[in-house]
Amino acid sequence: EVQLQASGGGLVQAGGSLRLSCAASGFTSDDYAIGWFRQAPGKGREGVSCISSINGSIYYADSVKGRFTISSDNAKHTMDLQMNSLKPEDTAVYYCAAGEESLCVRGTFVTHPFSWLGVIYWGKGTQVTVSS
Predict the structure, then answer these.
(1) What's the confidence (pLDDT) of residue 105?
(2) What is the dihedral of CA 83, 85, 88, 89, to 10 degrees?
(3) Cross-sheet strand order for the sheet of 68-73
(4) pLDDT at 79
(5) pLDDT at 104
(6) Residues with Cβ < 8 Å from 29, sequence gap 6 or more?
């Protein structure tokens, strides 16, 4: 059974940092785009960052570029999202996700408003709250 387990959310003041982690299990191949989505109250699910399994490319949503860093460890089957200089608008439930390989090749994961439709596996969300 495929599982994605996210952890690391919490409450932090604006300007602070948090590190989210996602542990994957049950996958039989590495042929997935992996990354993070977030959903703020009253808003749609937004692609934050992804890593392509095809070419190793990394993409970030414009709103988090320069502040967030995604990384993965294939040997440990983990993926992290280091979030620095957090802003109140980063407040959301964050989800780790694995989807179709093509989802991250050209950054569709973070640019298309319905990229979440290409996600195959979702982790349980973790709440990130940034106070002003």
Answers:
(1) 83
(2) -70
(3) 3-7, 18-25, 78-83, 68-73
(4) 94
(5) 92
(6) none
Neighbours of 46 (CB within 10 A): 18
Secondary structure (DSSP) of 9-28: -EEEETT--EEEEEEEES-S
Which burial class, exposed, middle or buried, applies to 84 when counting CB atoms under 10 A from its CB (0-12, 13-18, 19+)?
Answer: middle
In this predicted structure, the answer to whether residue 29 has a pLDDT above a threshold of 80 is: no
Q: Is 75 helix (H, G, I), strand (E, B) or coil?
A: coil
Q: What is the pLDDT of residues 66-112, one digit of tens each?
A: 999 999 998 888 999 999 999 999 999 999 999 988 899 888 999 99
Query: Scanning the structure block, which residue is given the tokens 């195959």?
Result: 120
- Average pLDDT (109-130) is 94
* Strand-pair partners of 39: 45, 93
> Nearest Cα to 99, choosing from 112, 81, 117, 113?
117
